[in-house]
Each structure stands twice: as structure tokens, then as C-alpha cells.
Sequence to fold (540 residues):
Amino acid sequence: MNRTKLIQHFDTLAETPDAVAKLRNFVLSLAVRGQLLPQNAEDEKPARWKEFVAKFPQKKTQDEEPPFALPKSWRWVRLNDVADYSAADKVDPSEIKDGDWVLDLEEIEKDTSRIIRIASFAEKQSTSTKAKFLPGDVLYGKLRPYLNKVVVAPQVGFCTTEIVPIRSRGLIEPTYLCVFLRSPDFVNYANSKSYGMKMPRLGTDDAVSAWVAVPPPAEQRRIVAKVEELLALCDELEARQTAAREHRTRLVRSALDHLTSGVRPSPGAATSTRTRVSENSNARRPHHAAAPGDGCTPDDFQQHAAFVLQHSDLVLDSVSDLRKVILSLAVQGHIAADSKTWPKEPEPLGKFAPMQNGYAFQSEWFVPKGVRLLRNKNVSHGVMQWDDMECIVENRLKEFERFRLDEGDVVLSLDRPFISTGIKVARVRREDLPCLLLQRVGRFQPDAKRLHPDYLFLFLNSPQFAGQIDPGRSNGVPHISSKQVEAAVIFVPLRAEQQRIVAKVDELMRWCDALEGRLTAAQTTAAALLDATLHQILAA
Fold:
């Protein structure tokens, strides 16, 4: 693919992960290498350019080599050769008028060279020294140069000293210098030369000695015009991409919401839905597919299930949401359930699985090694984590036998019960033993004849349980009580039916894993292809 075809196929390439950002960088890289537009011999005729070329002949020097090769008509120079990095006067706040423009670093949008806001001194009443800039100065954000904040000043103003006004010495166009300073090559250079861990910045000596690729002024202007055109196209593609993503999200959420709020289908409908999972997981959809209409009948449920499962590529962007929906449907009797035996009403969880609270072990009993104490910080989403643990001596284990945990026990953190990956509920594994239950962690004690532990664990991970729990505060920490947990209602079908539901959910979760894997593989391949194409063109 040549550069022309690449530009023609921007829309297709924009579908790959981070494609628009990569395309922006690619445009800037081509621009500063002289590969965006053809050179024109007429550009080299002005006397002033001939004087510049004579002053900076294109030959190897004894010092550091320039970053890459340039067209014959271009020249590598140091920034200080074409621009004044120290041109701006420092100004005391007392000299600034209320109506004067004062620019702070956060008012420049990263990567885009857009000024987000123009505010007057009266609005800010800043007390720190400022730098005065003039129209046409290139305002370069030297603090955290990876943020790539560079803009050409449209008018007179004053800026924080973390922004450096760079003034052209005449031969380099400010707009072209702005393009060069925004290019990945210069950003990488600035990052490599930055000093300071918490607030890295580019030092003056490294800035003024940086290499700058300079084409003839007429070509500079053409390059800037083309860059602006292509970056505007990138903005348009990004807006379309965002709109399409939002459309897909609304579509998926609508269908998933209808699934979780619909009525339980007949046994035949459940069977039909399960069949569609395997048969239609690879189905394609039109870009603007419409979700089925609202409704609460079994037929409506089947429509929504078919919509989600048949259009799996639409769901691919929301696999985590799909997992939640599967759990939600399972505990409401929509998956592998028998409508004839399904309970008519949910009942309090405490009726089937009362919760035992942990013991308030005294901190002075803690020792580095011994029997581990299960604290709320050790309970993560689905597993125990023992990187930070407290213990008591082993000879006291029998003393607290009532709080001794067993393999397969289901435990729930009562402090900070919700984390980004889900609710802090886990199963005790053999490698977690021996351990004792500490306060602010609860252990469920299910009635083995009526409630299967696997079905309990499934319910506790579902949105149905999470939606019934509203953490209050205990000593400033989000906290739920065992009474709140026991009051949450649950549908408890026959035990054999619970096992069928759990088995089906496990199967569907494996299907989700496959979808997620397929998405990751597709994104990785697309990104690699885009990177390879861009690198190939740059090397051409």
C-alpha cells in the first residue's frame, strides 16, 4: 500500500485499536521527513533560502548524527539556529492588566494543539511570574513533554513559565515549527532528555540543541496546509468512530436490559436460546441493526436473546456486560430452568444460608508466621490474596475452632465489598488452609439439602445480589452488615436444577472467554498490520 492509498483508506484503518492516534502521528512523521508531499525545485530559488543552504551544507559532521535522512533540498539544523528559545520577557503579575490573556498549561489540549480556554488575568489573579508571548510565537509545554502540548499563539498574552514562547528567527514558519515539535520524533527526543521523576521537563540546553528538519519556506507552508487537512480528517473519523461506538453501546445495553427485565421463558424457549449460543456465535450483523421492540412476554424474551446471541460481534465490545447478564438471567430462571418447578417468589438468603461473622482477634496476638487470619483485604474477586497477612500462633488453633474455615467455604468481605472487578466474594481453596475467620469477613453456612454452594456463589456474583446491597459507612469505610446480606432475596429452585444452571453458566462463561479471546486476537492482528504498514511506508 502506498501513501496515497493509505490516505484513501483512512476510514477502514480507523477501525483498528488506537488507529486514529496512530494515523495522526503517522501524518506528522511523514510531514517532517519530507514524505507527505513532493518537492518542488522552484522552492529552492529564493536568495534567502540559498544563503541558508550555504550556511548549513548537507554534510556529515563530527558531532551527533541527525535522526533520519532528508530530501536533498532540506537541511538539518539545531533549534537555536532557526528560533529563539529565550525570546520572551519575564513579567511580574503587577504589570499584567485585568483584561490580558493568561494561559496555563492545562488550557492546551494534549496532542491536538487546541487552546481549550482563553481566560483573563482578572479571572485568575495569578501571583506567579509570567512569560510574555507575541502573535506567532510557538508556545511549547516543556513540563511533561509526553503530553505534547504545542500551539501557535493567535494573539499577545502571558503564560506560565512551564510554557516556553519560541520565536522564529524568520526562515522557519511558526506553524511548521509547531508541526515539527508535535511530531513523534521530537516528542521521543524530549522524553529521552527530560529530567525529574515526578514532574519531568525538557531542559533549555537540550531544547536549543535539538535537531530540526527545515524545508524551504514555500514547502513548509504547503506541508502545514496538508497536515491540517489530514488531521481534520482524523478528527472527523474519530468523531464518527465515537458516535458508532456509542450507538453500539446503546444498542447492546438496550437488548441486555430487556433480557434481564423480561419474563422467564418457557422450557422450550430456554432450550432454543441455548441452541442459538452455539449455532450463531459467529453471525455478522449490519452496522445499524435495530434491537427488538419492548415487551415482557416469553416471545419478547426470545427475541432479545436471539438479537444478542446472533449478533455476537456487537456483543464483543461488551463481554463483561454479557457475563453479568448471563449471571442475572441464571438466577432469575432464564437459563436451564424448568418453569414448572421454579419458585414463584424469591426468599431471604438468610433462610437458606445464614452468615457467620468473623472473630475480633486482638492485634497484640498477631505474629509473622502461624495460622493465617482471613481479613477483608485478603478477600478479592473470586480468590484469596495473601501478600499482606496476619497470623496467630498455631497452638491456639483449637481455641478458635468455630472460626476455622474449610475448603469450599464461601466468604464475603463486609468492608469495601465492591471493587472494579466485581464483588469481594471468594471460595476457600485447599492452599488457603489453615486459616481463621476475622471480623468484617462473613462465612455463609448454606443448608446443604436446599442450597448448593456453587449456585450460592453464582448468585453472590450476580447483579441481582449486588443491586440489593447498599454499603453504608463504618468508621468512614464502606460497609455492609450480615443482616443486610441475609435480607437479600434469592430464587432457590430444586437442588438438581441449581446444578444444571451452574453447569450451563460455566458453559456460557467459556463461550464468553472464547469471544473475548477472539476480540483480543483480532485487535492484536489489526494493530500489528497497521503498525507494519506505517513502518514500511516510513522506511520506503
About this structure: The CA atoms of residues 265 and 298 lie 5 Å apart. Residues 262-298 have pLDDT under 50 and may be disordered.
